[in-house]
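Recall the central idea of this unit: under ordinary conditions, the amino acid sequence of a chain determines the structure it adopts. In this exercise we apply that idea directly, starting from the sequence alone.
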Amino acid sequence: MRAIILRALVLSVALVAAGCEGEIANLPTTPDPVTVTETFTGTLTVNGAQTHNVFTGATGLVTATITSLGESAPEKVGLSMGTLAGATCTVVMHNDNAVVTSYLSGTVATLAGSLCVRVFDVGKLTGPVDYTITVSHP
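Accordingly, the structure predicted from this sequence is:
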């Protein structure tokens, strides 16, 4: 009698497990967010600053890179990245010794975020400088 009950129990567990396997295999998956690269250009003046707004659509890595500082690159400039609320850019990270190829990198933890990237003179400019910044984000 015990053998019959044990077989029935094993068979019912096997059937339940088989039924669950099909359901788990069919769960939807979330696709990886698409990385977008935006390019911002402008002219940085002596004692000046330029801010660019970036809007993300998903969580993930954000990287801002200085890709050009004109033909006669200054010794250094400032680069910062932060959150944007209305017209206010709250700096989260910065580099006051940025040169061409310098970058800032952080992670956006909300599904949609408003960020800002800023380039500024740190007292080393002697004249206007054209710049290019690229920002990669989800």
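Confidence is low (pLDDT under 50) at residues 1-20.
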